[in-house]
Amino acid sequence: MRSGLKWMFLIIGTTIGAGYASGRELWQFFGHESGLAILLFAIFFSVSCYVIMYVSYKKESSDYLPVLRAIVGDKLTKVYDVMIFLYLTTTTIVMIAGSGATGQAFNLSYWWGVLIITACLIALFLRDINGILAMNQIILPLLIGGLLYILLLFINDQGLNVWAHLHEQRNWTAAFPFTALNILPLIAVLGAIGNKIKSKQEIYVAAIGSGLILGTISFIYNNSLIQIADELLLYEIPLFAILKHYPVEILIFLSILLWFAIFTTAASGVLGIVTRIQNRWNAPVWILASAVIIPMIPLTTVGFSALINYIYPVYGILNLYVLTRLLLYPLWNGKENRRV
């Protein structure tokens, strides 16, 4: 159970980044009439996590390439290898930009936010993957608890009924691109820990637990944003549209947690890149991390919301094939085994 929770927090830390925790990513894909879509997302997400971790466990992998090859096949491995590398790079850039945007919310220079997260990421990798796992086990419970607290408080204060529109579910297809969007980073991160997973029980705990938690938060969060839909155009970070109703102390607390959500996802992205290139360049992890992160800094000037609005939907669509392979894994894997 304890090991399973450790991997569960790694999964959630990879998924709840700047786009998700800020509400921008949820609003981009869901919004009105999306209750069924979020339920399907929770199911698809749990199944996908289970398959990725199972393959990683069987392969005893230390990077994502063997896992990717088992999922998409030899012919498409090179294509998706490049896609994962580009995805991790752009996602990490989004996280660094998100740190700059969070700094601006406190009237700090954008570049101070960027430099702080850069220095913290490099320092984190002085302890290799153990630093990320230890950080997630401390930060993620605080982040999940804090986010749920403010959302439930907002729903209660506004007298909202989150079940009011359950009969309107025309946006159910959004579950597919939204789940697909989060698949590639999970392959990258979970592929790096295959040699550290000890049993299938850990996989069950991590896969089911992460799906339940993310599904619950997504449903509550999305329904909260629906109530203030007209105001969201005025905010770079939708969460701040909710926080404006509360004292500045809550704004500061949630903003700090938001920054840590950004930080954990950036760390997961760098981990995926570093473990992939470590086979070619034998150097300390923190040096490889520095070589990866520093060139990204100038690219963050594109803007946080612009990156999410244009890059995320494109990746969500391109990853639909991978999602299909993961969801149908028991069928096609069973056929291949029978052929052998």
Main structural class: mainly alpha
* Distance linking N and C termini: 35 Å
Q: What is the correct CATH architecture? A: Orthogonal Bundle
Evaluate the radius of gyration.
Answer: 19 Å
Assign a percent range to the helix content: over 70%
* CATH class division: Mainly Alpha
CATH topology, by name, is Hydantoin permease
Structurally, the number of domains stands at 1
Mean pLDDT: 83
Could you name the CATH homologous superfamily?
Hydantoin permease
Biggest β-sheet description: none
Note down, in words, how this protein is organized:
With 340 residues, this protein is mostly helical. The chain has one domain (2-330): Hydantoin permease, CATH 1.10.4160.10. It is 75% helix and 0% strand. It has 17 helices and no strands. The protein has helices at residues 2-15, 18-21, 24-29, 35-59, 65-72, 74-105, 110-124, 128-158, 175-181, 183-190, 200-227, 239-243, 248-277, 285-293, 304-318, 320-327, 329-339. α6 packs across α7 (110-124), α6 packs antiparallel against α13 (248-277) and α7 (110-124) packs antiparallel against α14. The longest helix is centred in the first third of the chain and has 32 residues, at 74-105. The radius of gyration is 19 Å and the shape is globular.
Describe the structure using short key phrases.
340 residues, mainly alpha, Hydantoin permease, 75% helix, globular
